[in-house]
């Protein structure tokens, strides 16, 4: 009874924050050629300032979030340009309420089970504080394998911590390092499942001894803590960090961290603070991107693979975002296919297969991405993984997480990470 009341109170409080999305719709739209694509981007991004959730291509539609008061202009402009579109979600607020209810119920179920302290059960989305506590707990309980490292401090002053997982305390240069990070884009919550599952399978329940004995791991679960917390407490679709002081009276805040790394910085991103892909005042202007940079720089001779986990779309993407190909593009593609195939082999049948390709050519040009910087400093296998948008019985999809999918997302992505890690284990040995 008490628990029912708690759920009720929890839900009535949180529903208020979803009001900003009352009446907002998600539309799918099609483009037939490059010209239409340019037109639609100009209209949606530059003219209407809309948030494009997924990018259209020759055989796939794009997705865009349209607030209530922009819907009329949106429809008018797209009709005029002859671009086909249809609403897939009429009122996103209803879906936000559903997600909140599902996740709140899942989290209450777990927290009432006191035996679940050691390993986090993968059927909920964890708050930043819970992840931090978990990492401290792991470092304390597995001192021979796990070291908690503070990589820096976020704009709002939170510690950005990551785990070093190693049976040789990171001292053995004959081992390659695999570096995985998630939640650089704060709203892409499903990515958390991938890093947590990796930690679980390396530390808590290791059934593949080669992966822990022969490889050192760096795992950074929350690359953008301020944005992540904001996406829970205030705006579910918050993508950037929470940098202020960039715009008059802070009417717009935040830097797109995945446009802030130093590769072709500022060339394929926005210099407007209010845009979702605002690249920030300069390369590595943000403390959050500096954390990844420092890790990559410190271990660049040993990091053989870097994986930045995002969502959504089921893609394995490799550098460079500008469409330019690095010298090892064929190898990048080959290992990308290994990763994608390993996931496809165990994915849910309702989800589509992964697509592998250069991000600039396959999706759209971008600059300042984390995977670009990693490749630039010499990490051979550098990828951005876009996890699937899952639509189960609850019907929520896109960035929204159905608890039904969390364990599966962790499991299937780990199959991909394993396939990549085993390949780079050999490639590192050969390179040396
Ligand atoms: C692009 O597609 C539109 C709509 O079918 C068409 O009107 C236009 O001529 C096409 N442009 C090019 C360059 O193919
Ligand atoms: C440990 O991992 C294996 C293989 O992934 C799995 O089958 C098993 O259920 C896990 N054990 C626990 C206690 O979670
Ligand atoms: C999806 O991937 C699986 C495994 O790689 C393959 O067997 C299947 O044919 C693929 N399906 C499609 C529609 O491409
Ligand atoms: Zn992302």
UniProtKB/TrEMBL annotation:
Its cofactor is Zn(2+). SMART domains: Zn_pept (SM00631). Residues 1-16 form the signal peptide. It comes from the Eukaryota. Transmembrane segments: none annotated. InterPro entries: CARBOXYPEPT_ZN_1, M14A-like_propep, M14A_act_pep, Peptidase_M14. Keywords: Carboxypeptidase, Disulfide bond, Hydrolase, Metal-binding, Metalloprotease, Protease, Signal, Zinc. Residues 124-424 form the Peptidase M14 domain. The active site is at 386 (proton donor/acceptor). The keyword Secreted does not apply. Belongs to the peptidase M14 family. This is Peptidase M14 domain-containing protein. It comes from Plutella xylostella (Diamondback moth).
């Amino acid at each position: 009874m008490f628990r029912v009341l708690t759920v009720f109170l929890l839900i009535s409080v949180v529903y208020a924050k979803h009001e900003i999305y009352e009446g907002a719709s998600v539309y799918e739209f099609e483009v037939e050629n490059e010209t239409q694509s340019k037109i639609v981007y100009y209209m949606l991004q530059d003219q209407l300032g809309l948030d494009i959730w997924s990018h259209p291509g020759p055989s796939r539609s794009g997705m865009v979030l349209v607030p209530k008061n922009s819907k009329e202009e949106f429809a008018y402009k797209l009709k005029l340009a002859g671009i086909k579109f249809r609403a897939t979600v009429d009122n996103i607020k209803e879906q936000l309420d559903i997600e909140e209810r599902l996740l709140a119920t899942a989290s209450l179920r777990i927290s009432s089970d006191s035996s679940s302290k050691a390993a986090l059960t993968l059927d909920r989305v964890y708050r930043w504080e819970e992840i931090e506590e978990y990492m401290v707990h792991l470092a304390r309980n597995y001192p021979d394998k796990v070291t908690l490292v503070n990589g820096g401090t976020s704009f709002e002053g939170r510690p950005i911590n990551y785990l070093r997982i190693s049976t040789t305390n990171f001292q053995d240069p004959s081992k390659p390092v695999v570096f995985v990070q998630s939640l650089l884009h704060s709203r892409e919550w499903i990515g958390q499942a991938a890093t947590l599952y990796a930690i679980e399978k390396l530390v808590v329940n290791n059934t593949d001894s080669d992966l822990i004995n022969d490889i050192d791991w760096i795992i950074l679960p929350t690359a953008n803590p301020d944005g992540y917390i904001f996406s829970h407490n205030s705006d579910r679709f918050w993508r950037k960090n929470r940098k202020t002081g960039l715009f008059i009276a802070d009417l717009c805040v935040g830097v797109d961290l995945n446009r802030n790394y130093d590769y072709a910085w500022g060339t394929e991103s926005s210099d407007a603070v209010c845009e979702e892909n605002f690249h920030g005042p300069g390369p590595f202007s943000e403390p959050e991107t500096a954390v990844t940079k420092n890790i990559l720089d410190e271990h660049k001779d040993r990091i053989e693979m870097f994986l930045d986990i995002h969502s959504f779309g089921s893609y394995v993407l490799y550098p460079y975002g500008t469409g330019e190909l690095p010298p090892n593009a064929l190898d990048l593609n080959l290992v990308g296919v290994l990763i994608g195939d390993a996931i496809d082999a165990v994915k849910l049948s309702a989800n589509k297969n992964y697509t592998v390709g250069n991000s600039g050519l396959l999706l759209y040009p971008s600059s300042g991405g984390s995977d670009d910087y990693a490749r630039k400093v010499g990490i051979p296998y550098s990828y951005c993984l876009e996890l699937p948008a899952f639509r189960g019985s609850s019907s929520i999809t896109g960035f929204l997480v159905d608890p039904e999918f969390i364990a599966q997302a962790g499991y299937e992505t780990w199959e991909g990470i394993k396939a990549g890690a085993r390949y780079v284990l050999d490639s590192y040995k050969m390179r040396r």
